[in-house]
Design a protein that fits this description.
Structural class of chain A: alpha/beta
Order of helices and strands of chain B: HHHHHHH
Number of domains of chain B: 1
CATH topology of chain B: Methane Monooxygenase Hydroxylase, Chain G, domain 1
Radius of gyration of chain A: 19 Å
Helix content of chain A: 25-40%
Helix content of chain B: over 70%
CATH superfamily of chain B: Phosphate transport system protein phou homolog 2, domain 2
Distance between the termini of chain A: 31 Å
Strand content of chain A: 15-25%
CATH architecture of the domain at 21-114 and 187-266 in chain A: 3-Layer(aba) Sandwich
Strand order of the largest sheet of chain A: 6-7-8-3-9-10
Distance between the termini of chain B: 9 Å
Radius of gyration of chain B: 20 Å
CATH architecture of chain B: Up-down Bundle
Largest sheet of chain B: none
Structural class of chain B: mainly alpha
Shape of chain A: globular
Order of helices and strands of chain A: EEEHEEHEHHHHEHEHEEHH
Largest sheet of chain A: 6 strands, mixed
Oligomer: heterodimer
Number of helices of chain B: 7
Number of strands of chain A: 10
Chain lengths: 271, 241
């Protein structure tokens, strides 16, 4: 508390850095443009390992674009150009020797609308595993049980693993998708509005899951729901028009943001 | 990030602006009432006006009702709006402030009760000079704390925080003179004890005014300076921007 009484803490444009040991993802001077139109402008931020970082900001501010960039989902879009670096555990994700398939195994992604494959619950979770390696059935079953348990879905589906995934409710489908991602043991989980299409109870289950997964991996959450960012994240980054406005501990951002622009956004003021 | 007194009127939701404005207005109304209560209680004591003292005792109910009403409004805002940042700090500061104002109301009521007792006692009451002096001091603190709240003025708030130390010193020295009075004349013990209770109540009013001033700093700067020595706080941090 006493430390926060010094005048340094009110300095504008704070840049929060983490040491190499704490840092899982490190983004440095990252620019990205769609057909020459800048979407991300000079972003520099470190995301700490085993924590939840939330990206918040108005529509079109670039938060989903940034999330996709971490997974190199823009690779197939020829109109996208970028510069700067994104490092995963010290390794540049755009380095020529980076295997994109391996990158996407290490960095899982969950989207706004649950997208289970048109197959059984079991096969959904086994899908990535089968692509990755041949495993004895017993071993595979263990991993599937572990993934479904980690995704807080096992108890609800253990007796119906061979039913179609599409028969699950929206919230269950979303947890199934998370289980599918967890099965291939990623280091990072990117969540793009994972609960925005879900009812309040399913939303709370997903939030609880995010909290519990922290001990296993690093999570990055994009959300429009500020209360959700405040509830589940440890750090919050506020983006506006492709720029990082403020990045800090969630508690601080939501009780005493340093910049007027952040304050205006999170309190719903006219800017 | 600093806020100003019109920060809370710029939301996209006009209804929310209005709710926060009402919180502030009602808190100021409660502050005004409590200020008047302290003023009347001290006047009743100094002038031996037991009717006025009785009125102060009756009016305490209004203060209590206002506390309930404002707390209720704060609960509604928290439940319905889930305020963040400066909005959240405003609601928290208002909840805390109503509790201190209500306690000041109780202290005014105690002063009024002693005023009624003293008005019945015959003879010369000692210690009224001390009461007059300290009451002027704490009433100014209370007025300044409320003004600082209304204007979001952290510099004025810090003045109040510093004043509280002076009041504590004055209270200590008044207590020593009153003890001398009691030793000199044992017949005065009962009335001097009443005066001591009054001074104690006034000193507590000063403490509550100090708390109000601390909430202003929290509200405007997001700094919780409760339990901190005012001399250790960097004056630059508290400067108005």
């Amino acid at each position: 508390m006493l430390a926060s009484l010094s005048s340094e803490n009110v300095a504008p444009a704070p840049v929060m850095r983490f040491s190499a040991e704490q840092c899982c993802l490190s983004i440095a001077q990252f620019y990205l443009a769609y057909a020459g139109k800048t979407a991300l402008h000079d972003l520099t931020l470190d995301l700490p390992r085993h924590h939840v970082t939330a990206f918040i900001g108005p529509s079109g501010c670039g938060k989903s674009t940034l999330l996709r960039a971490i997974n190199r989902l823009h690779d197939l879009n020829e109109s996208v150009t970028h510069s700067g670096h994104i490092q995963l555990e010290g390794q540049d994700i755009h380095a020529p020797d980076m295997n994109v398939t391996e990158l996407r195994r290490r960095v899982g992604m969950v989207f706004q609308t649950p997208n289970p494959f048109p197959m059984s619950i079991y096969e959904n979770v086994a899908f990535g595993l089968r692509l990755q390696q041949r495993l004895p059935k017993r071993k595979r079953d263990d991993i599937i049980e572990w993934a479904l348990t980690s995704a807080a879905l096992w108890d609800e589906v253990k007796d119906q693993l061979h039913r179609s995934a599409w028969q699950l409710s929206g919230g269950q489908q979303q947890r199934l998708v998370i289980a599918r991602t967890l099965a291939i043991k990623p280091d990072v989980l990117l969540l793009d509005e994972p609960a925005s299409a879900l009812d309040p109870i399913s939303t709370l289950k997903i939030e609880e899951l995010i909290r519990n997964l922290k001990s296993q991996l690093t999570l990055v959450l994009v959300t429009h729901n500020m209360q959700q960012a405040a509830r589940v994240s440890d750090y919050t980054a506020f983006l506006q028009q492709g720029e990082l406005v403020e990045y800090g501990p969630t508690d601080q951002v939501f009780t005493n943001p340093r910049l007027q622009r952040t304050e205006n956004y999170i309190t719903g003021r006219i800017t | 990030m600093d806020i100003t007194s019109d920060t809370h009127s710029q939301h996209i939701s006009r209804q929310f602006n209005q709710e926060l404005e009402e919180l502030k207005t009602h808190l100021m109304a409660m502050g005004g009432l409590v200020e008047k209560q302290v003023q009347d209680a001290v006047f009743a004591l100094l002038e031996g006006d037991s009717h006025l003292a009785e009125k102060v005792r009756d009016n305490d109910r209004q203060v209590n009702d206002l506390q309930l009403q404002i707390d209720d409004e704060c609960t509604r805002v928290l439940a319905r709006r889930q305020p963040a940042a400066s909005d959240l700090r405003l609601v928290l500061a208002v909840i805390r402030a109503t509790s201190d104002l209500e306690r000041i109301g109780d202290e005014a009521s105690k002063i009024a009760r002693n005023a009624m007792l003293l008005s019945e006692s015959n003879g010369n009451v000692r210690g009224l000079i001390e009461v007059r002096h300290i009451s002027e001091h704490v009433r100014k603190m209370l007025r300044d704390a409320l003004t600082a709240f209304a204007r979001f003025d952290t510099e004025l708030a810090m003045q109040v925080v510093r004043e509280d130390e002076l009041v504590d010193d004055e209270y200590g020295s008044a207590m020593r003179s009153l003890m001398t009075f009691m030793m000199e004349d044992s017949r005065s013990i009962s009335s001097v004890l009443s005066i001591m209770w009054v001074l104690r109540a006034l000193e507590r009013v000063g403490d509550h005014a100090d708390n109000l001033a601390e909430y202003v700093v929290y509200l405007v700067k997001g700094l919780d300076i409760r339990h901190s020595d005012p001399d250790t706080i960097d004056p630059q941090v508290l400067k108005k921007s």
